[in-house]
Amino acid sequence: MTMNWTAVGLEDVAPVVKPDRGEREAFAEEVRRGLRRARKELPCKFFYDAHGSQLFNRICDLDEYYLTRTETGILMRYAGEIAQALGPRCTLIEYGSGSSIKTRILLDRAKDLAGYVPIDISRSHLDAAARQIRLEYPGLAVLPVCADYTQSFDLPARCATGRRCVFFPGSTIGNFEPEAARDFLRGIRAQCGSDGALLIGVDLKKDPALLHRAYNDREGVTAQFNLNLLARMNRELDGDFNLSQFAHYAFYHPGRGRIEMHLASLCDQDAWAAGEQFHFREGEAIFTESSYKYTPQEFERLATDAGYRVEHRWTDSRRWFSVQLLRAV
Ligand SMILES: C[S@@+](CC[C@H](N)C(=O)[O-])C[C@H]1O[C@@H](n2cnc3c(N)ncnc32)[C@H](O)[C@@H]1O
Q: Is the same domain home to 267 and 233?
C-alpha cells in the first residue's frame, strides 16, 4: 500500500471555516504576548489553519521529510501486533489527528474498536477528515473533538468508561519542551485510566545532515508552511506583515537535540497585527517551532518520569523513527 498525503489530503473537501470571535481573540492574545517578548516567539499550534494543514500534507509527501514515510512503514509492518496490543473494545483517541491517514492503518486491523475520537485544533480539516472516515468505516462510531490539547477539554461522554488508547503519531511530542512533554504525557495518562495505553510516534536522533534536510526541502514547502504563520496574522488579525521581508530559517541544534524553526527578519521593519505594532531589527527572528529528537533511552526516561513503562518499541531497519506503546504504571 502506498499513501499520498496530498491526494487524500482533503484539500478538495475541506471548507475554509472562519475562526469564531473567541478563537480569533485567543490567537490575538498569544500573538501580542509572543511578539512583545525580548526573544519573539509564537506557539506552533497556530501553523494549522486550513491552509497550513494543506501545506503540512504536502510536507508529508516530500522526499526529504522521512518522518511520515518511515512511521507509516512501521505502522503497516506491525499493525497486527499493535491492534492486538490495544485489546478488545478499545476507544482509540487520536491527538492532532490531521487527515487521519495513519489511523486508517490501525482501523483496518483493529476491527472491534468501541470508537474513534479524532482531536484537532484545525476545525475544517478535522470535520472533513471525520466525514471521510465515517464513509470509509460505516460501522465505526466516529466522535470528533475540536480542541487545543494543551488546554483542558472534555472527551465525549461515551468514552468515560471502557478501555482507552491515545494515539499520538507524527513525533508531535517533539514540539514540547522536555519538561512540558513530561507533564503533557502525565495528562494523557490520567485521561486513559489505569488500563489505558499511549501509542506514540517518536523521531530518533540521527545524522544532523538528514535532520537538516528534512526541514529545509528543495521545493520550499516547509518555508511556505512557516511563513503561513505571518500570512495567517495578516488574514485573521488585520496584520500587514511583508512576507518577502522574512525568511524561513531551520537548523538542528545538536547540543539541545532539536530542530529549531525561525522566521528571520531580512531588514529593520515594523509590522502591525492584533491591534499592535511590532518592531523587528534586521536579523531578529520569531521562534516558531522546536522538534526534539530522542534516543530510545532518553525517551524511555521521559516516559518513566511521566508514569509509564515502555511495553513495545517498534522501529524501522535504519532506526530513524519509533512507534512506542506505553502503559501506565
Ligand atoms: C505534525 S501534524 C501531525 C498530523 C498527523 N497526526 C500525522 O501524524 O501526520 C500535527 C497535527 O496536530 C494538530 N495540532 C497541533 N497543535 C495542536 C493543539 N495544540 N491541539 C490540537 N491539535 C493540534 C495540527 O492541526 C495537526 O493536524
A: yes
Give 214-233 pLDDT, tens digit per residue: 999 999 999 999 999 999 99
Instruction: Report how far residue 193's alpha carbon sits from residue 106's, in angstroms, rounded to the nearest whole number.
Output: 21
Q: What is the pLDDT of residues 232-275, one digit of tens each?
A: 999 999 999 999 999 999 999 999 999 999 999 999 999 999 99
How many whole angstroms separate alpha carbon 227 and alpha carbon 244? 9
Residues 80 and 164 in one domain: yes
CB neighbours of residue 20 within 10 Å: 9
Nearest CA to ligand 1 atom 14: 96
Residue nearest to atom 16 of ligand 1 (CA): 45
Rounded to a whole number, what is the largest CA-CA distance in the chain? 60
What is the H or E stretch that residue 126 is in?
Answer: helix 123-136
Contact 110, 92 (CB under 8 A): yes
The count of domains in the chain is: 2
Query: Partners of 321 in the beta sheet?
Result: 203
At 72-121, the pLDDT tens digits run 999 999 999 999 999 999 999 999 999 999 999 999 999 999 999 999 99
H helices of 275-314, where?
296-305
Cell of 288: 516558531
Tell me the C-alpha distance between 97 and 273, whole Å.
29
Q: Give the residues surrounding ligand 1 with Cβ less than 6 Å away.
A: 45, 48, 53, 56, 60, 68, 96-98, 102, 120-122, 148-150, 169-170, 172
Give a yes or no: residue 15 inside a domain.
Answer: no
Q: At what angle do helices 50-60 and 123-136 cross, to 10 degrees?
A: 60
Residue 274 belongs to domain spanning: 22-63+210-292
CA distance 329 to 298: 18
Shared domain check, 99 and 26:
no
